[in-house]
Write a structure and sequence with these properties.
Layout lengths: L2 E2 L12 H10 L5 H22 L4 E3 L7 H9 L15 H9 L9 E3 L6 E3 L2 E2 L11 H11 L4 E6 L1 H6 L2 E2 L11 H17 L4 E5 L9 H17 L4 E5 L9 H6 L4 E5 L6 H7 L6 E7 L9 H15 L4 E5 L18 H4 L5 H17 L5 H16 L6 H8 L12 H12 L16 H12 L4 H22 L16 H4 L3 E4 L6 E4 L2 E3 L3 E7 L6 H9 L6 E5 L1 H6 L2 E2 L5 H21 L4 E5 L14 H16 L7 E6 L8 H7 L3 E4 L10 H5 L5 E4 L12 H14 L18 H26 L1
Parallel strand pairs: 1-12, 2-6, 5-7, 6-8, 8-9, 9-10, 10-11, 11-12, 16-18, 17-19, 19-20, 20-21, 21-22
Antiparallel strand pairs: 3-4, 13-16, 14-15
């Protein structure tokens, strides 16, 4: 009999209970016990939801109070020395210090989890790294599930993915594969303990098998799982791969001594046929046919046929039905959406609905399609409705996109000429200071927005309230002596949602939250149709802010690739087409900002690296249309208008040439957590344009002293020219409080002034 299973469920709670509990605890308003109680309640609720849906394998240890890779660090005892860990069980205080920093030290580095918008804490490994079982979390949660009669399958990030996604300690050069023996010893200890507690299956996530792997990593994979199979021969391991197909790693995966293998058949449906050709007789195949990353309703008929193909080859006892990947990247419950119109809502499925889809597919395969006759009819009707709906198609947008000419990607002059023109126009000092865009979103701002949306605050009163907040931000920046100002984005809810609300082809949810990192959640828009910009989106606010000051005011926009990647994107046309439609919409906004007198315009593109395909063979095609989409949005301005962009939490080395091709006049990047390591790519490439390497980490409430920023800026000066360098935080300030923001920015401005004096003397 085919079994219905899951790989992971969203941890945040349908009403963002985890966010509220975390932030209350961090502020000291509630106790550790209160936080742990919220976690216990969420786990129980989510397990029971999956049990009620009819799942036979329900994941546990997929819950985290911050990040699953950070959980693995604590489980394996991979705690950097600076956090002063005592070597025992890792405490919650140490756990959060690693995630957020503390009064003494900053947080660990974050970067994107494969090609998603989820940020994970990057483990730090050193040569000869010691591993030690240092957390009981996985055992505690398995015991919880067992006590509730949940058929729980504990989840672990596999050893090779853990090592592959980690970083080496600064200044050390060694192969992370050399650490596999030590790490696997702790995995074996964990697996033996789980087996003794009654676990039958354990899920080992190895998404690194979807990457281009060197032979040493394949060999390390074989070594690790041979050790595990030898030490724990009776425990069944479900090896899960996702985010792409296995391709040249298929033979490695099929040859591992594990009881089951999971394939992502949403991202790579063609790999099923290859896998079935030589699928080992001793393995179970888990087929990922329900999309764990997007929100479109499953075409049940197609999925049923896919599962039947696997059953025909392997037999029903050797096939599990599952989502493509963990549902961490999906909102929780479509039933909570009360404002979506019926037609659009009928095209969607969130995590709870995906559970029902998995169960329905399983039932149809086991009992015949007549057993889900009504469900299947509804699925067919939704697919037909979406395909035929006139609201999806806009012929004017299609024609304009088809008519894009190569000249539309080019600025009037090269940067070498633009630079002098802009410096003459802006008259900025060396080491000019600016911020990335947003300022703290206070309780008053959020309450005003909520009141306006509910109708209790008129549009006129809301606009007056936001203008008051903007003036406060502008006056503060003048007082702090920042050189290029921003308006603070008080009127914006989210850097993508705000624009999506004003573009055609987008829809929005009330509660479609997904985790970005820690307690930071986003509510991605849904791109369901052709995209265009009916009216200007930001000109009114930027013009008002510029009217308040004689200093340059940056117009703040989100770029086409980031809007694409941070939305739930339509899957009925190529992503390239959607990206260029968005690029044209942003181009219209850029032109209008310039006409309104805004001479510095920032088009944020933090998701360019994130959108990169996992396989190098697929990079060139993506990077071409991604770069073209950005240039399409920016290239319409005069030489005197300075185009900025911002990128954060990404490895730039592999794509630095394409970043250069974007031809932004100034790029700001995250470098503080990495201690300027991420700057190396720009140095090696000899990046000709201007750079703002972030001198402090805004994702932590810690206020770094000026001396700390001085040290980072000194590192930048060693590898860049003085006239290239801007001074800024590493990201926007939306999530920070005013007190820490003011203190940090004042230190930042002081840092820039010290650098001007110091390096002016050296030049003299």
């Amino acid at each position: 009999m085919v079994l219905a299973t899951n790989l992971g469920f969203p941890r945040i709670g349908a009403k963002r209970e985890l966010k509220k509990a975390l932030e209350s605890f961090w502020k000291g308003e509630t106790s550790k016990e209160d936080l742990l109680k919220t976690g216990t309640e969420l786990r129980a609720r989510h397990w029971q939801l999956q049990k009620a849906a009819g799942l036979s394998h329900i994941p546990c240890n997929d819950f985290s109070y911050y990040d699953h890779m950070l959980d693995m660090c604590t489980l394996l005892g991979v705690v950097p020395e600076r956090y002063e860990w005592d070597g025992g069980m890792v405490s919650l205080e140490t756990f959060f210090s690693m995630a957020r920093g503390n009064a003494k030290v900053g947080a660990m580095e974050m970067t994107k989890w494969f090609d998603t918008n989820y940020h994970y804490i990057v483990p730090e490994l050193e040569e000869g790294q010691a591993f030690k079982l240092s957390s009981t979390k996985i055992f505690d949660e398995f015991a919880e599930a067992k006590a509730q009669s949940i058929p729980a399958r504990p989840v672990l990030v596999g050893p090779i993915t853990f090592l592959k996604m980690a970083k080496k300690k600064t200044g050390q050069d060694f192969c992370r594969c050399t650490l596999v023996l030590g790490a696997v010893q702790v995995y074996i200890e964990v697996l033996k303990k789980l087996e003794s507690m009654g676990a039958e299956w354990v899920q080992m996530d190895e998404p690194c098998l979807a990457l281009d792997l060197e032979d040493r990593y394949r060999d390390a994979m074989k070594t690790a799982y041979k050790m595990i199979a030898t030490a724990v021969p009776n425990l069944k391991i479900m090896l899960t791969t996702y985010f792409d197909g296995l391709r040249d790693n298929m033979d490695t995966a099929l040859g591992l001594p594990v009881a089951g293998l999971h394939l992502d058949l949403r991202r790579a449906p063609a790999q099923l046929e290859e896998a079935l050709k030589n699928f080992p007789a001793d393995k179970i195949l888990s087929v990922g046919v329900v999309d764990g990353r997007n929100i479109w309703r499953n075409d049940l008929r197609t999925s049923i046929e896919t599962v039947k193909k696997a059953v025909a080859k392997l037999g029903s006892d050797r096939v599990f039905v599952a989502p493509s990947c963990a549902m961490l990247h999906s909102p929780i419950d479509l039933d909570n959406e009360k404002k979506l119109d019926a037609e659009l809502k009928g095209w969607l499925a969130f995590a709870k609905q995906k559970l029902a889809e998995i169960a329905a597919i399983t039932k149809a395969v086991n009992e015949g399609e007549s057993a889900i006759k009504d469900i299947l009819a509804a699925s067919d009707a939704a697919a037909a409705s979406r395909k035929a709906s006139p609201r999806i198609h806009n012929n004017a947008v299609k024609t304009r996109t088809a008519d894009i000419k190569p000249a539309m990607f080019e600025r009037a002059s090269p940067f070498s000429k633009r630079k002098g023109v802009q410096h003459a126009a802006l008259k900025l000092p060396d080491f000019p200071t600016t911020t990335i865009g947003s300022f703290p979103q206070t309780t008053e701002i959020r309450e005003a927005r909520a009141a306006n949306k509910s109708g209790t605050l008129s549009d006129a009163d809301y606009e007056a309230a936001m203008k008051k907040e903007i003036e406060l931000v502008v006056r503060y920046q003048e007082e702090a002596d920042i050189d290029v100002l921003v308006h603070g984005e008080a009127e914006r809810n989210d850097m993508v949602e705000y624009f999506g609300e004003q573009l055609s082809g987008f829809a929005f949810t009330q509660n479609g939250w997904v985790q970005s990192y820690g307690s930071r959640y986003v509510k991605p828009p849904i791109i369901f149709g052709d995209v265009s910009r009916p009216t200007p989106m930001t000109v009114k606010w930027s013009s008002f802010a510029q009217s308040l000051t004689k200093r340059p005011m940056k117009g703040m926009l989100t770029g086409p690739i980031t809007i694409l990647c941070w939305s739930f994107v339509r899957d009925d046309q190529p992503r390239e087409t959607t990206a260029k439609q968005i690029g044209l919409a942003i181009r219209d906004e850029v032109a209008d900002l310039e006409k309104a007198g805004i001479t510095v315009i920032q088009i944020d593109e933090p998701a360019v690296r994130e959108g990169l395909p996992l396989r190098r063979a697929d990079w060139q095609a993506y990077l071409r249309w991604a770069v073209d989409s950005f240039r399409l949005s920016a290239a319409c301005v005069k030489d005197t208008t300075q185009i900025h962009t911002h990128m954060c939490y990404a490895e730039f080395n592999d794509i630095i040439g394409s970043i250069g091709e974007m031809d932004a006049d100034v790029i700001s990047i995250e470098t503080s957590r990495s201690q300027m390591e991420l700057l190396e790519a720009f140095v090696t490439y000899k990046y000709p344009n201007e750079i703002g390497p972030g001198v402090y980490d805004i994702h932590s409430p810690r206020v770094p002293p000026t001396e700390e920023m001085d040290a980072l800026l000194d590192k930048a000066v060693k590898v860049l020219n003085v006239d290239q360098i801007w001074v800024n935080p590493d990201c926007g300030l939306k999530t920070r409080g005013w007190k820490e923001t003011k203190a940090a920015l004042e230190n930042m401005v002081e840092c820039a002034k010290r650098a001007r004096a110091k390096y002016a003397r050296k030049a003299a």
